[in-house]
Amino acid sequence: MKNYVIISESTADISQNMVDELGIKVMPMAFELSGKSYLHYPDAREMGIHEFYQHLRKGEKSVTSLINTETFLDFFEPILKEGNDILYIAFSSGLSGTYNSSLLAREELLERYKDSKIICIDSKAASAGEGLLVYSAAKKKEEGLTIEELGNWLEQNIHKLCHWFTVDDLNHLKRGGRVSAFSAGIGTALNVKPILHVDDEGHLIPMEKVRGRKKSIYALLNHMIGTFTPSDEQMVFIGHGDSLEDAELLARLIREKFTVKDVIINPIGPVIGSHSGPGTIALFFFGTGR
Fold first, then answer.
1. 155/253 Cα distance (integer angstroms)
2. What is the C-alpha to C-alpha distance for residues 64 and 273, in angstroms, rounded to an integer?
3. Is 278 helix (H, G, I), strand (E, B) or coil?
4. Using the 8-state DSSP alphabet, how is residue 44 labeled?
5. 247, 238 Cβ separation under 8 angstroms
């Protein structure tokens, strides 16, 4: 069986240790902070994640951009030249045009490498939700699934991948157009914390509002109760915007409530963090449906 390589990008918010463990490849993504451009890698080599959030806390602005077709060509082609096929798991098309760029690159490369396979999967996921999908795919590959079998497994399970998260500062969502300036101002004054999720099309959807930080963390747990099926094979991922203590609180609550294989905590990197801001807590797991 021809070997294939699983590829994702740094919006998946998985650690360098996990990248090495899984044997996958991660494309860096760009962000611009106060007029200077950086690439974010899993090892955060160009800017540390705590440092990034400190800049945001000082009021500095960060903007991001999609991965263009040329970048995909440059990243994919050496892998094909080595005789490997490619299974690419993309950041949600409901939040970025990156997936569409990958399809254009795929079409061009398959004209040059006619015996190769390139499968591009729209994860409809973000942050460590995308990371949990990538992790699960890599484990399935270790079980011996072919590239086609793994592509089919992903398509069948994407809509079971649940995303629930809360942000600490509504003004970052305001800048991204997710909430109005009025709602952000009132919400901040009243200590309102929104609970959001990612729907079946990969769009970010506000679901409810609670008063206070601790209540927002318990609200994430309550939404998990609705769809999660406890199992000693279940992995749960938690992402945090430089807010490790709150992430660890949520992890403890989950372990007390459910049977799980493990709860993995990873920081949310600058690409997603540019839009969600410091203090974000995000919960990801496979359930009966989103």
1. 30
2. 10
3. coil
4. -
5. yes
